[in-house]
Amino acid sequence: MKRCQWVEGAKPDYLEYHDKEWGVPVYDDKVFFEFLILESAQAGLSWYTILKRREGYRNAFAEFDPIKVSQFDEGKVEELMQDVGIIRNRAKILAAINNAQRFQEIQQEFDSFSNYVWGFVGGKPLINNYSEGEMPPATTKESDALAKDLKKRGFKFLGTTTIYAFMQACGLVDDHSEGCFKR
Asked: Which residues bind Zn(2+) (predicted)?
C-alpha cells in the first residue's frame, strides 16, 4: 500500500494516524479543540513526540473539554507542570487555558468553532496536488489568514506554520501525495 513519503517506514502508531486521521475532514468542535491543544504543544517539537503523549494530553486536559480547560487555575497549572504524560512547558499550558477561553468565544459568535474555521477554506477541503516525494508548504495564504485572525482574537502559540499543520490534521486541507492510497 502506497502512502505519503513522509510516513513511509514510520512506526505503527504513526502509520495509523496517517491512515485513519490525517486529512480526514473534522466537523466536531471537541476534535478541533483537541488538535489546537496538540498542535500548539508541538511547536518546536516533532509531531511524533506529541502523538506518543496524546493520551497523556487527553487525561491532563479534561478529555479536551474546552469549558473545563478554560477554568483551570494556578493550582491545576502546577499539577500539569508535574505531569510526565505531557510536555511540561508553562507557556504552552497557559496558552491551552487561554485558547480554551478564546475557543468558547468563537463558538458563541459563530454557533460553533467548526463554522468559523471552515469559513477560511470556503466550506470544503482544499485539495492540493503534490507529486510523490514533493513536500507540501509549511504555510499558505489560508493558514496565514486563520493564524492572523486567531491571534487578533487572543489565541497563543498558534502561528501560521502550526495552523497549517492543524488544517492538514483536521482535513481542511488534503495534502496526501498523488501516489498515496488516501488521496
From this structure: 4, 18, 176, 180
Beta strands in the chain (DSSP E): 126-127, 173-174
Block residue for cell numbers 496558552: 95
The residue annotated as part of the active site, out of 39, 57, 130, 164, is 39
Phi–psi pair at 43, nearest 5 degrees: -45, 120
- Calculate the average pLDDT of the chain: 95
The topology under which CATH files domain 5-174 is Endonuclease III; domain 1 (1.10.340)
**Residue ranges covered by each domain of the chain:** 5-174
Whether residue 39 lies in the annotated active site: yes
Other Cβ atoms closer than 10 A to 16: 13
pTM for this model (two decimals) = 0.95
Q: What is the pLDDT of residues 155-176, one digit of tens each?
A: 999 999 999 999 999 999 999 9
The pLDDT assigned to 1 comes to 84
Tens-digit pLDDT profile for residues 66-88? 999 999 999 999 999 999 999 99
Q: Which of 6, 14, 27, 47 is catalytic?
A: 47
Contact 113, 103 (CB under 8 A): yes
CB distance 28 to 35 below 8 Å: no
Catalytic position from the list 17, 22, 57, 130: 17
